[in-house]
Amino acid sequence: MPTKQQCFRGSNGALFDLHFILAFATLKPMLDQKNLDELKTALLKERDLLIKELETIATPDTNLEGDWDIKHKEWGEDQITSEEELEGGESVNESDEDMKNKALSDRLELRLKEVNDALKRMDDGTYGTCEVCQKEIPADRLKANPAAKTDIEHVKEIYAG
Hints:
Blueprint: E1 7-9, E2 15-17, H1 18-25, H2 33-57, E3 58-60, E4 68-70, H3 96-124, H4 139-144, H5 155-159
Antiparallel strand pairs: 1-2, 3-4
Helix pairs in contact: 2-3
């Protein structure tokens, strides 16, 4: 029997066990086909957007699937080239813009991989299952991030590093 501190009265005067309420509140709604279709549409739209963004700063690497090579800015005569040195003896390999584009390209590539992986999981029937604990990922999490591969409790285990 729950203790008095573990119970409360509802507006109708009924006595509720706090543990039961907490367990009920954590139930995860199942994804139905309509939700899956909506999530797949969102993933496909995001994939198209990511590819368009990548195409503005990079080109697909023909030797490595999923990798993109940044489009280098043309060097002008007044810019430091890779053969010249900065103060302190450091060589310049890339322009500031190239470095920014590389960082952006890396982030876009990573997200594109996450989206493509989610689409593959949809095809093989494992979408919506946490890769760590094998439990269903809550629908709200998938709606917030359709490419999620873990529940919130296990995010750090996948992305730590």
